[in-house]
Write a structure and sequence with these properties.
It is built from 11 helices and 9 strands. With 307 residues, the chain is α/β, with parallel strands linked by helices. It binds N-carbamoyl-L-aspartate (NCD).
């Protein structure tokens, strides 16, 4: 039962609970009438202290498709945070109005803190460079829909593995599935942080680290590309030096397996050339759509309209 539960990081739900969400998301996709209006009268607080397109709009679309309503802000400059209000007080207040809260915040740990003060379930829509568990739901559902299951695969994570919260959450989640090999492809400055590699080592997950995408692309079943996270850099020069470390193009796709799946949480900047979009292996826009279905499943579950 997910009713009333917070979702701060992927480990908060068991594999069975995740599986239940994916099955529900698939049912919602197959049967658009199912759960329509099930959340009538319910309110979702949408608190975005950082920019977003897909996460915020897919949550809002999910809530509206379930018959509920959203209230909140997409820019904290228009909230009392701009007057110096603490996050704890903002969340306590919004929980008086809303049945659940979805929050994105630039500070690592912000969602966990919010969950301690909120009278309503809190969903982490990204806390700084730490975690992004609902993107992981999106990614795991995409892998399941495209490849059949999340286990038994070699997945490459490429780009900014230091600041990219989506890769932290996805690697952590995949460490619970059987026979997953991970290949971390990044410049030395942007390697996967020790709190993730330590977790993988502890779970007996096999991973390798390299700087060379061409050398490993032919071994991958899934390639998860990421943007270099400009907003988390301390200085612009480092960002400029590192931003184009990897550009996936037609030539590199030619070195990959015929059935490799390319995922990207989006937004992309330069790391995937637009010429790759027409390749049937490019799945990132399908992935964005799965994100809405799985967020519908999540909201319906934590709001208690399905078991
Ligand atoms: C990601 C994020 O916000 O971490 N975007 C998203 O939610 N789909 C990835 C990114 O911004 O690079």
């Amino acid at each position: 039962m997910l009713t009333g539960r917070h979702f701060i990081e992927p480990d908060d739900f068991t594999l069975e609970e995740l599986d239940g969400l994916f099955s529900l998301a698939e049912k919602i996709e197959r049967e658009p009438e199912y759960l329509r209006d099930s959340c009538r009268g319910k309110l979702l607080g949408v608190l975005f202290f950082e920019p977003s397109t897909r996460t915020r709009l897919s949550f809002e679309a999910a809530m509206l498709r379930l018959g509920g309503t959203c209230l909140g802000f997409a820019d904290s400059a228009s909230s009392s945070a701009a007057k110096g209000e603490s996050l704890a007080d903002t969340v306590r207040t919004v929980a008086c109005y809303a049945d659940a809260i979805v929050m994105r915040n630039p500070k690592e740990g912000a969602a966990l803190l919010a969950s301690r003060y909120s009278g309503a379930p809190v969903v982490n829509a990204g806390d700084g460079g730490h975690h992004h568990p609902t993107q992981t739901l999106t990614d795991l559902l995409s892998i399941r829909r495209i490849r059949g299951a999340a286990g038994n695969l070699t997945i490459g994570f490429c780009g900014d593995l230091t600041f990219g919260r989506t890769v932290h959450s996805l690697a952590k989640a995949l460490s619970r599935y059987p026979h997953v090999e991970m290949v971390f492809i990044s410049p030395p400055e942007l390697k996967m942080p020790p709190y993730i590699t330590g977790r993988l080592a502890g779970a007996g997950v096999s991973y390798t680290e390299t700087g060379n995408l061409e050398a490993v692309i032919g071994t991958l079943d899934v390639l998860y590309m990421t943007r270099v996270q400009r907003e988390r850099f301390f200085n612009e020069e480092d960002y400029i030096r590192l931003k184009d470390s990897y550009i996936l193009n037609r030539e590199k796709m030619g070195m990959a397996k015929k059935d490799m799946t390319v995922l990207h949480p989006l937004p992309r900047v330069n790391e995937i050339a637009p010429e790759v979009d027409a390749d049937p292996r490019a799945a990132y826009f399908r992935q964005a759509k799965y994100g809405m279905y799985v967020r519908m499943a999540l909201l319906a579950s934590i709001l208690g309209v399905v078991c």
